[in-house]
Write a structure and sequence with these properties.
Layout lengths: L1 H23 L3 H10 L3 E8 L2 E6 L6 E3 L11 H6 L9 E3 L8 E5 L5 E5 L2 E2 L21 E4 L5 E2 L21
Parallel strand pairs: 1-4
Antiparallel strand pairs: 1-2, 3-8, 5-6, 6-7, 8-9
Length: 174
């Protein structure tokens, strides 16, 4: 019996040593590759003219809607057509600089889960067509990009060459 316990302990110790050795040799690009292959919904930070803001794994900017209540979306029908809610697919993952503790979900009327950050339901903007675009920033003074602390970013950082954005919609009546 003592021999079996000693053998099991030695095996566990060997596995721990091998695992530590493999982890120590892993580069940061190896970690990034592991993250990018993990399934689920990733929230990342992407550099824009408004500083680093929340984005999807592919770099598409995420926005908050100021009329939303905490953990409750008020953007439906026509609104959601122009501002698609970010829906949770599988496990939520926080990229570098994103605070995992601020990630969550809220249930929409259709029962599906929308991603939230610091209680703000998150949306993409249909006018953004590539990573890093912030075409919806400041729209109607109610749509804003979101920083890593979960706050609306209303102005470009000091020293930036950007001017505050006031977006006019290409969609009449909205």
């Amino acid at each position: 019996m003592k021999t079996r316990i000693a053998l099991a302990s030695a095996l566990v110790l060997a596995l721990v040593v091998v695992g530590a050795a493999l982890g120590a040799g892993q580069s940061s690009s190896g970690v990034a590759a592991k993250q990018s292959s993990a399934s689920g919904t990733w929230i990342t930070l992407h550099k824009t003219k408004f500083g680093k803001v929340l984005a999807t794994k592919s770099g598409m900017t995420l926005y908050l809607y100021t009329p939303d209540a905490k953990n409750k979306s008020n953007c439906y029908t026509g609104c959601a057509g122009f501002w698609p809610p970010l829906m949770a697919k599988g496990t939520l993952h926080a990229g570098t600089g994103v605070k995992a503790g601020l990630l969550g979900t809220t249930k929409r009327r259709n029962g599906k889960r929308q991603v939230t950050y610091h209680g703000h339901p998150l949306y993409q903007y249909s006018g953004d067509s590539k990573a890093g675009q912030v075409s919806g920033q400041g729209y109607q003074s109610i749509w804003y990009v979101v920083n890593a602390s979960g706050s609306a970013v209303k102005h470009a950082p000091a020293g930036s060459t950007s001017t505050p954005t006031t977006t006019t919609s290409p969609y009449p009546g909205y």
